[in-house]
Design brief:
Elements: E1 2-8, H1 11-23, E2 29-32, E3 36-42, E4 45-58, H2 63-73, E5 81-85, H3 91-100
Antiparallel strand pairs: 1-4, 1-5, 2-4, 3-4
């Protein structure tokens, strides 16, 4: 399994992306978190903005597909999308995730 973390500029965009990824069977589950305030340097300036984080669960084999799909969906030129491989999980949950994301 893999966990993918991404942030979106609006709650609506986060929602729409989660729905699309689920409909396309790229992820088994998406958790939309409360908005966060992000501080970062962009094009030489320090920026502050509200962002909407999402945690997505997928199979290891679909990880790059999910990252690529989010990047195409996202309106930012450089979207924050990161993934971690899952070292351990409840066996039944891992089976469910893999079954839900099977091509």
């Amino acid at each position: 399994m893999a966990i993918i973390y991404a942030v979106f500029p609006t709650a609506g965009e986060a929602h729409d992306c989660c729905r699309a990824l689920l409909e396309e069977r790229l992820v088994a589950c998406a958790n939309r978190l409360a908005p966060v305030i992000s501080h970062y340097r962009w094009e030489g300036e320090i920026e502050t903005s509200e962002e909407h984080p999402v945690i997505l669960k997928t199979s290891a084999s679909r990880q790059q597909d999910v990252i690529d799909r989010i990047a195409k969906f996202h309106r930012h030129k450089v979207p924050a999308i990161m993934a971690w491989k899952v070292d351990a999980a409840h066996p039944a949950y891992a089976l469910w995730v893999n079954a839900e994301t099977a091509p």
